[in-house]
Specification:
The complex is a heterodimer of chains A (about 450) and B (about 260). Chain A has about 450 residues and is α+β, with helices and mostly antiparallel strands. Chain A contains eleven helices and eleven strands. In chain A, strands 1, 2, 3, 4, 5 and 6 form a six-stranded antiparallel beta sheet that branches. Chain A is rod-shaped and about 200 Å long. In chain B, helix 6 links the parallel strand 6 and strand 7. Chain B has about 260 residues and is α/β, with parallel strands linked by helices. Classes of the chains: A alpha+beta (about 450), B alpha/beta (about 260).
C-alpha cells in the first residue's frame, strides 16, 4: 500500500515539476536570446547614430575650415600683390636688398604674416624675411614637393597660386602659402602664414571636444576620426584603453568599406562593437569621402545583462517548481488519499469487515472520486447483503429427511409386483452380466 | 469382467448427463473400453456432449427396443472426441435415445419391453468387449431405472444440496439398498461456493450412511462452455475434472 502511494504521488509530482522546469527554462532561454539580440541591436543603433553625428560634425568642420581657408587665401593674395608692387617701387628707388628686407621683416614682425619671399627672375629669393635662409625655387617636384607649385609664376604660366595649409617639409609646422607673379619683372612673390589658426578653428568647431566629451560620458570604448589619408584627426579612448597609435588593418578595411559603400558598417569582436561612418565633403566642387569616424562600444555589458537575467530566471524557476511541488503535493493527497481509503475498503469487503458508512464523507464529494465512492458503497452494500443471505441459507441448510414420507414413497415402489420380481432375480441378473463381459 | 455403472438422480437438473459423459470420457482416456447408454428415452440429451447430431444418428436405442436392429448397431463410436491424449486401448461408444418427436411419443404411448433392455445391456458388453457400461437413467424411479439399479455393480446418486434433493435421495438410497446394489456413492453437485464443503459432506454421509465420492461447485466455466463439449478434456486442471477423476478411481476400485 505504501509502495503504491509513493509511486502514484511521486510520479504525479515528478511529472509536474519536470513540465514546469522545462517551460520556465525554455521561456528564459527565449527571453535571454531576444534580450541579447535587442541589446546588441540597440548598441549597434547607438554606435551608428554616434558615428553619423560625428561624421556630420566632421563634415561641417571641414566645410567651415575650407571656407575660412579660402577667404584667407584671397587675403594672402592681396598681401602678395601689395608686396609685388612694393618691391617694384623699392627697386626703382634703388633701395638695397638689405633695406628692403628690413622693411619686410618689420611687416612680418608686426603682423600675423609670418614669411615673405620675393625672387629675382632666376628664382632665387633675393628679398625675404628669413635672411639666414638662401632659397631658390625649383620646378622639380622631386626636389621641392611643396614649393615647386609656385614656379609657374616665374615663367608667366600662372599669375597666382594658393596652397592649402599643410605640414611643411622642412619642419613639422603647418603653413599656408600664397603667391603672385612679379609686377615689374618675372618674379615669385610669396607670402606664408603659420596656420595654427586653422587647427585652432577645427578644435573650436568642436570635433575634438565632442569626441572627448562623448568618451568621458561613458558607454564608449573609443572614438577616432580620420581624414581621407587615414590620418587621425581626433581620437579619444577610455582611461586604460588603447593608445592613439594608428588604424589597425581591420579598422582601415572597415573605413574603406564605409567610404566605398557610402554608409555605416559594423563589426563585432573581442567584446567590442566597432561602427565606421564615412565623412563627406567637397573636393574641388565634387562630393567625395574626406574621412571617416570610428566608434567603438563595449558589448560585454550584454553578457552581464544576460547573466543577470539567467540568475533571475533560475530564481523564478526554482520558486515556481517549489510552489508547484507544494500545490501538487496537496492535490495528490486529495486524489490518492481517497483512493487509498477505497483500496482499504475493498480489502475490508474481502475480509468481511467493511462498513460502507465509513465512506460517507468521501461519497459526499461531487467529483469523480465521490462518484467512485458512491458506486463502491452501493456495491459493498450489495455484497454484504448477499453474504448475509447466503450465511442465512447455510444456517438453515440441514439434511433433514421426512422419514415417514420417504418410507411411504419407498413402500409404493417396493410393494409393486415388478419390484418384487426384480428383487428376486437381482443377483441372478447381475451374475449374468458379470459373466457377459470380456 | 465388465462393470455396469448406473448414474441416477431423483430429480432432473442435477448435472447427471454432464457427469456421465465426463466420467465415460475419463475412463476411456485411461485406456478402458466404455459405452454410455442413454435410457432417458423421454428427454434424451447426452448425445450433444459427444458431438452427435440427429443426422449422424441413423440408429438409436429406440430402434433396438422395437426390434428394428441389434443393440450393437445402435452403438456409435465417439472415441474421436477423446482427442490425442487417450491411451490406445481406450474406446468410447454411445447408444443414444432417439430425439425424433414421433419416436419419443411412441415410447410414451406404447411403452416397451424392459426385459429386452436388459438383454441389450448384456449383448453390448459381449459385442463391444466392454470394461464399463454406463447407464444414464431417467430421473425418478420407473421400471427401467429400477432395472438399471438392479443390474448395476456401482450406483452413483447425484444430488444438489437442497431440501427436495435430500428427501428424494433418501428414497432412492433406500430402494437401492433393498435391491442389494453392491456399491453405492453419492455425488454432491452444483453446490454454492458459500457452503462449507466439509460440513455438507459430513452431514450427507451421516444422514444416508453412503460415502460421498465427489463434491462439486457450481462452475462458471462449465456454464460458459454449455453442453458444447466434454469439460474434463477441455479443462484438465479444473477442480471439477479432479472430482470426476476421484469418481473414476472409486469405480475402478469397487469390487
Amino acid at each position: 500500500m505504501f509502495r503504491s502511494r509513493l509511486g502514484l504521488r511521486a510520479r504525479f509530482l515528478a511529472f509536474l515539476a519536470g513540465l514546469l522546469a522545462i517551460a520556465v527554462l525554455t521561456t528564459s532561454l527565449i527571453l535571454s536570446w531576444t534580450a541579447q539580440r535587442s541589446i546588441l541591436e540597440q548598441t549597434a543603433a547607438d554606435g551608428i547614430l554616434l558615428a553619423n553625428l560625428l561624421a556630420r560634425s566632421a563634415e561641417y568642420a571641414d566645410l567651415i575650415t575650407r571656407d575660412v581657408e579660402a577667404e584667407l587665401g584671397r587675403q594672402m593674395l592681396v598681401e602678395a600683390t601689395i608686396a609685388a608692387h612694393l618691391v617694384a617701387i623699392a627697386e626703382r628707388a634703388k633701395m638695397s636688398p638689405a633695406e628692403v628686407n628690413r622693411h619686410l621683416k618689420a611687416i612680418a614682425d608686426s603682423t600675423v604674416l609670418d614669411e615673405i619671399w620675393i625672387t629675382d627672375p632666376s628664382g632665387f629669393a633675393v628679398y625675404r624675411t628669413q635672411e639666414d635662409i638662401a632659397f631658390t625655387f625649383s620646378p622639380d617636384p622631386a626636389v621641392q614637393p611643396q614649393a615647386h607649385a609656385f614656379y609657374p609664376l616665374l615663367t608667366g604660366q600662372s599669375q597666382s597660386v594658393v596652397q592649402d595649409a599643410r605640414v611643411r617639409e622642412v619642419d613639422t609646422r603647418v603653413f599656408k602659402y600664397a603667391g603672385v607673379a612679379g609686377i615689374d619683372r618675372p618674379r615669385i612673390v610669396q607670402v606664408g602664414y603659420e596656420a595654427t589658426f586653422i587647427e585652432e578653428l577645427r578644435r573650436r568647431v568642436g570635433l575634438t571636444r565632442l569626441v572627448d566629451e562623448l568618451v568621458a560620458g561613458g558607454h564608449l570604448v573609443a572614438i577616432r576620426v580620420v581624414d581621407r589619408n587615414f590620418l587621425t584627426i581626433a581620437f579619444r579612448a577610455v582611461p586604460g584603453g588603447r593608445d592613439e597609435g594608428s588604424l589597425t588593418n581591420a579598422e582601415r578595411a572597415l573605413v574603406e568599406r564605409a567610404v566605398r559603400e557610402e554608409g555605416t558598417v559594423t563589426t563585432t569582436g573581442a567584446g567590442i562593437l566597432t561602427v565606421a561612418a564615412p565623412i563627406f565633403g567637397t573636393n574641388n566642387g565634387v562630393r567625395a569621402g574626406v574621412g571617416a569616424t570610428l566608434v567603438q562600444l563595449p558589448t560585454d555589458h550584454v553578457l552581464r545583462v544576460m547573466q543577470g537575467q539567467a540568475w533571475v530566471a533560475a530564481g523564478v524557476a526554482t520558486a515556481l517548481v517549489l510552489l508547484a511541488l507544494a500545490v501538487s503535493a496537496v492535490l495528490a493527497r486529495r486524489v490518492t488519499g481517497p483512493v487509498l481509503r477505497l483500496t482499504g475498503a475493498a480489502a475490508a469487503v474481502e475480509a468481511e469487515t467493511c462498513n460502507p458508512a465509513d465512506l460517507n464523507d468521501l461519497a459526499r464529494r461531487d467529483d469523480e472520486l465521490g462518484e467512485l465512492a458512491r458506486v463502491f458503497q452501493r456495491m459493498a452494500e450489495d455484497v454484504i447483503l448477499r453474504e448475509l443471505r447466503l450465511r442465512e441459507q447455510l444456517r438453515e441448510l440441514r439434511v433433514e429427511i421426512d422419514e415417514v414420507r420417504a418410507a411411504k414413497q419407498v413402500a409404493e415402489i417396493t410393494e409393486t409386483d415388478y419390484f418384487k420380481d426384480l428383487r428376486s432375480k437381482a443377483s441372478a441378473l447381475r451374475e449374468r452380466h458379470r459373466s457377459a463381459g470380456s | 469382467m465388465a462393470k455396469i455403472v448406473s448414474i441416477h438422480s431423483f430429480r432432473g437438473g442435477t448435472g447427471k448427463s454432464n457427469l456421465t459423459a465426463n466420467l465415460a470420457a475419463t475412463l476411456a482416456a485411461g485406456g478402458r473400453r466404455v459405452a454410455v447408454v442413454d435410457t432417458d428415452i423421454q428427454s434424451p440429451g447426452i448425445h450433444v456432449l459427444f458431438g452427435l447430431d440427429e443426422d449422424r444418428m441413423p440408429r438409436s436405442l429406440n430402434d433396438y427396443l422395437w426390434g428394428a436392429c441389434r443393440i450393437e448397431e445402435a452403438a456409435h463410436d465417439v472415441s474421436g472426441q477423446l482427442g490425442t491424449t487417450r491411451a490406445a486401448s481406450g474406446a468410447l461408444f454411445l447408444i443414444p435415445s432417439s430425439i425424433r418427436a414421433g419416436e419419443i411419443a411412441r415410447v410414451l404411448r406404447e411403452g416397451y419391453d424392459v426385459g429386452r433392455l436388459n438383454d441389450g445391456f448384456g449383448e453390448l458388453i459381449r459385442q463391444l468387449h466392454l470394461d464399463y457400461l454406463l447407464i444414464d437413467t431417467h430421473p425418478g424411479l420407473n421400471e427401467e431405472t429400477l432395472l438399471s439399479m438392479t443390474i448395476s455393480d456401482v450406483l452413483l446418486l447425484v444430488l444438489r444440496p437442497d431440501r427436495q434433493d435430500f428427501q428424494g435421495t433418501a428414497v432412492a438410497v433406500d430402494v437401492a439398498r433393498k435391491l442389494d446394489v453392491p456399491a453405492m456413492y453419492l455425488v454432491v453437485n452444483k453446490a454454492p461456493r458459500a457452503y462449507d464443503a466439509a460440513a455438507i459432506r459430513g452431514q450427507v454421509e451421516s444422514a444416508y450412511k453412503v460415502p460421498v465420492a465427489a463434491y462439486m461447485h457450481q462452475s462458471e466455466e462449465m456454464l460458459e462452455l454449455g453442453s458444447a463439449s466434454l469439460f474434463s478434456l477441455r479443462y484438465p486442471d479444473h477442480p471439477y475434472t479432479h472430482e470426476i477423476r476421484a469418481i473414476a478411481k472409486r469405480i475402478t476400485e469397487a469390487a
